Queue: 4 jobs
Job 1
Amino acid sequence: MLKISSSRFAFFLWRYLPAAAWMGVRIEFLDDQVCTTRLRYSWFNRNPFGSTYFVAQSAAAEMATGLPAYLTIRQRKARLAMLVTDMDMSFLKQAKGVTYFRCDEIQKIVSAIRKAEITDDPVSCKVAVQGLDAETGDPVSAFTVIWRFRRRKQK
């Protein structure tokens, strides 16, 4: 079961991804099926047009896929490297206030990690993330993140 407390997540962000922490990416929900991150519009992550900057939205979307992958690799004690190889994004309307980034394809990530553990070839995994306005539930952005998992070489 994937699990992380909000305080451990904050420590993780400040230690490994301080830009995401500075922009305000937070964990909202995580289990074996779904990961949801939260991003609140603030002066740290705004653009000149009065909405959340696309880079901050991208960081929150990546985190909704990357955190489950990272935790799965650690939980399985797998010697794997992980890397985002491609990201496709669409912005449907201005992101103001709080936006949730939801990935419900965690099992695809887990399957790719399991496959990467037993093969010498890199394994790619394409997952979708939806950016949703917290007040209305309307989509504000959509992301497709492609992760590559590869077994680390023995030293």
Job 2
Amino acid sequence: MQFILALSGVIPAIVLMAVMARFDAKRPEPKTPLYLATALGGLSTIPVIFIQLGLEKFNPGGYSGALYTAFGVAALTEECAKAAVLYFVVWRSTAFDERLDGIVYATRAGLGFALVENVGYLMGSESMPGFFGTFVVRAVLAVPGHAIYAGFMGYWAARKKFDNVGPGLLGGLGIAIFLHGAYDAALFLIGVLAKQGGLAVLLVFPLIAVPIVVVVGGYRRLKKHAEEALRLDDVTHAPRPQPRLPFGLGFVLR
């Protein structure tokens, strides 16, 4: 029964995939590479889990341990997995022929990862209140966050490929790791502070705002990037004006 309930964790990712598909409705991507990016994004959770378990053995604990887990264990491994999907699935594909495609395929990989991860978190819920709390928080913040972080690397990868502008895939990966790490660091530090007790607990309240700022601010910025990519793609695909011929010559040449 718990597994069936946990499967509801796929809903937020599927909804966001539909939202992204509507944004890309003008020149939609072929289904096969979209499904492949989503599936491999989800499957990438398996090696990531084992790598994270190995890295956690070196966790120093305390505040530095929270930062280590956030940036070095979670953000680094998960965003690298999404970048690998983007690079090996679509980088050389003929389907990757527009700037917006970078965001489309990267967010698909991110949402595939988030879909599987979300079901796993919901499987670990020990009570119904805990289940619903986890579902809501992750649906509003964590799942969109995975898409947003990946979206930045997809955008900059595409801008570098088509316009030779910006930091490219590696720079976008750095941005994704920073945003993801900041999100997780706030949550992990809250856990450490809660255990400390005393006045340290007061620092919990400003840290609560960090994940919200990261996701909301990241969404607003990525939306602007997507609009810019779409505008540039429209210019690229716009029909070129035909040269005007002298009066009467056009009729003769028909």
Job 3
Amino acid sequence: MLKAIDIMTPDPVTLSPDTDILTAAKLLLDRKINGAPVVDKKGMLVGVLTQSDLVAQQKQVTMPSIFAMLDGFIALSSREDFEREIHKIAATTVTEAMTQHPKAVTPQTPIDEIATVMVNEKLYTLPVVDSGKLVGVVGKEDILRTLLEHHHK
């Protein structure tokens, strides 16, 4: 069975945590990619920035819901979620807008497992890491291309 190492794109487009948001957005649009891994100076995966993360900056703030009971207030949503949302909307650098601790696969992850993660978690590009270091990415196009190649054999 094919594994991530067989179908991944090695040396993918990456972003640095301190890249400004406008530069990152331009890179994603210019390269026509949905997202890019964010790596530190040592090549270690620290996050992923997607077009969805950038679009989230334009959304309206969801005020925390509260419930009044016996002259007291009970929060129906966490303050941490609210603060995280505000922080993401106000982001000026990749590190502030990216998804931290992203789902990743290893070079030995079988293609069926990769497809399952993509479908179940609605992820279209997965970083491939070896001991925490980014070695490639697998996108839905890589899986489709592989299916077509094997179908024509």
Job 4
Amino acid sequence: MRELKNEGKRIVLTNGCFDLIHAGHTRLLSMARGMGDILIAALNTDDSIRRLKGEKRPILDQKQRGLILSSFSSVDYVIFFDEDTPEEIIREMKPDVLVKGGEYAMDEVVGRQKVWDSGGEVTIVTPHAGHSTTNLIKEILNRFVQ
């Protein structure tokens, strides 16, 4: 990370579960990539997701989610965090830009103050309306489970 910053690269960080990739995720990643030189996607580990979303999640394990995200040309690096929030990673990385999806209000963005304190920006990207992993799971259940 230090090497990239020393080279003058603008580091963008986004984070989340990225459980079932959908159009909202792809839009967020594409827009985030346009905000800097390097995009890092921080993913919750499987254990972290279970604590946050319940025992039935994640649908895809962290290895699959990491492989999928790393295949996107917009994503330069994928890292995992096991905590419930990415606050420690944000504190350590001090990204130039922290990007979150539009389902968050600014006062809900974990690590925002640490980014601001280090001179960075926090940006909220509005995803495609109605696109979420939870909605996708509900749609699958409605269509295929009686």
